[in-house]
Amino acid sequence: MRQGWRWFGPKAPVTLDEVRQVGATDIVSALHETPIGAVWTREAVEARRDLIETTPVGRVPLRWSVVESIPIPDAVKRTGGAAKAEIEAWIASLESIGRAGIGVVCYNFMPVVDWCRTDLDFVTDTGATAMRFDFETFAAFELHILQRPGALQDYTPDEQARARTVFEAMDEQAAADLVRNIASALPGSTTEAMTIPAFRDRLAAYRDVDAATLRRHLAEFLAAVTPAAEAFGVKLTLHPDDPPRPLFGLPRVASTEADYAALFDAVPSPANGMCFCTGSLGVRADNDLPAIARRFADRIHFAHLRATKREADPRTFHESAHLEGDVDMVAVLGELVAADRRRAPGETIVFRSDHGHRMLDDLHKEVTPGYPAIGRMRGLAELRGILHALGHPPETRAPAS
């Protein structure tokens, strides 16, 4: 297995030399500055690749091995194969990536909003901070700030009353922070920042899209792009929904083992794979993560390894330390190691320590929410220790380009 690190580009708070220092060998990145739906040119992709892979004298080499992500335009999610221009542009970006020698692309198919949290700096019992999704705070946002039509029917009278109490306790700054956290696109998001009126308009555009329709649109998209992925030597990996359940009255179709089984049955191409995110899938108690890893072992080309902890109301959760929470990381890594050992040279699984607590010096400096250096370094070190204990230590040098 190979140790990846999500890097947000030249302006990121974490430098490439700091990535080397934590022990990672593989970069997970994207052209975040490119507008959603615009083609990634071969020149732009190769320039970013060369920036990452041109190794200063005396330094450990790095390799850009995973793209996370090429955003999928809203029109594709709403209309599927009918969004021909948007799909052709996505394929053009895919070709640029394949021609540059990058073999894995991660993407998601979450409508309107990408990953969602209500709090970016929830204070844990150690004094470090973590990201959190609080169900009552989310309900307060949906019912009293967004005022989504039809939202009341999704909440019991008791839940509505508690949401009102939460909302009435917010001051102006707390309400603004909540809008920023939910509607303004978190780091790495593949959806656009929205004002509240724009948010309502976007939701209205999905009025006739139910789960069956969204699943069909995903299958139509993949049917169109997987032949290109095969031709360019790229594996596509679908990231799970985060949280893995419907939000804002919208369906989500990558939340369970059954969702992925249906996807692989619909599009059996070997290029149609999975990003195995233990944090996202682990929010649901009914997801057996080791069993999912075992069943889809041949489809997992990229892994996000992190843990979440369900609270008293299991719809509320926070990001825990990597070896705590509700994810049996040792069992998960045991399955991934078994899968990795069966693979041909050069096809090993890239993993990254996903997210991390804001701790130590990172509490006092600017960090990318969800991606502080020290918390992720702690997680990567813990994961690396498990791999050593399993007799399958990760590679310590990037493979030759």
Automatic annotation (TrEMBL):
Enzyme Commission no: 4.2.1.8
GO MF annotation, one: ferrous iron binding
GO biological processes: D-glucuronate catabolic process
Reactions catalysed according to its record: D-mannonate = 2-dehydro-3-deoxy-D-gluconate + H2O
SUPFAM superfamilies: Xylose isomerase-like
A Pfam family of this chain: UxuA
Source domain of life: Bacteria
Cofactor(s) the record lists: Fe(2+); Mn(2+)
Keywords: Iron, Lyase, Manganese
Family affiliation: Belongs to the mannonate dehydratase family.
NCBIfam families: PRK03906.1, uxuA
Protein name (Swiss-Prot/TrEMBL): Mannonate dehydratase
The species this protein was found in: Aureimonas pseudogalii
Gene designation: uxuA
